[in-house]
Design a protein that fits this description.
Number of domains: 1
Shape: globular
Structural class: alpha/beta
Strand content: 15-25%
Bound molecules: NADP nicotinamide-adenine-dinucleotide phosphate
CATH class: Alpha Beta
Largest sheet: 7 strands, parallel
Length: about 280
Amino acid sequence: MTVLVIGATGKTGRPVVEALTARGVKTRAASRNPGANGVTFDWANRDTWAPALEGVEGLYLVPPYAVPDGAGLVRDLLAAAHDARRVVLLSLLGVDLLPDVIPMAVWEDEVRSSRKEWTILRPNWFQQNFGEGFAPALHEGGVLELPAADAAVAFVDTRDIADVAAAALTEQGHARNVYVLTGPRALSHAEALRVLGEAVDRKLTYTALEPGAFADGMRKAGADDRSVTWQRGLFALIRDGENAVVTDTVERVTGHPARPLESYAQENASIWRDQ
Ligand SMILES: NC(=O)c1ccc[n+]([C@@H]2O[C@H](COP(=O)([O-])OP(=O)(O)OC[C@H]3O[C@@H](n4cnc5c(N)ncnc54)[C@H](OP(=O)(O)O)[C@@H]3O)[C@@H](O)[C@H]2O)c1
């Protein structure tokens, strides 16, 4: 079996490639700028699709969230993926609560109406954000500013998402399932930063931003209206308590418990050190 992993350079795609390789599955790692073992794939350039899809029996889809006019792209890609029997879509927790704001709702519908054996993953916020997108602010100033109030989030390790994706792509029994994936406990951002700070022996702090100030900051950094609206929606869900949910799906599907933030923090402590 060969699986095309879209978003293979990203936070879930990298461990998906690792998890499939560990199961003896051949993977094709897709990127707009692939390395030696990857394949060129760009949602926004359909000429790249056919060579990437050639002979592929399984698909891991990080959807075209960054392509402004992305409706229809997942549907068309699935139609072009003639040989692909199984597909796993990376969606997100809360997509069903704000379907007009969060673009993944469209792609869930496109996957559901395909003739593939589909599985949809709805993960909570990733633990890996602290070590990637949020890392520069934490490394430099030790402060993270977000409009999350003091609401709790059951941050999930992307390696657990990858283990679930690998199971869904290689085992029977996962078709037509929507899996809500979370970490083992819900923490506020202040508590999460305390966990990271203890691992690195440094004070890391969280500051609650007003949603309007957050939106202004995104616009100043060059974000378009669509991204601002979508991100504001996601943080509104957090403030409403929607991301505090803890599920046992990782353990049910993979047989191992979901990884706690403490493990991620200890394994990656050097990221947040201030020297
Ligand atoms: N971050 C979270 O906490 C979180 C939580 C739940 C769900 N999600 C979902 O996860 C998805 C990924 O978000 P992320 O911010 O964490 O990013 P990420 O997966 O770390 O990185 C984005 C990936 O998408 C690929 N990509 C971007 N534009 C592409 C294009 N035009 N064509 C092909 N590939 C493209 C990038 O590959 P190249 O740059 O190599 O081409 C990269 O591998 C989003 O749909 C988001 O809703 C994220």
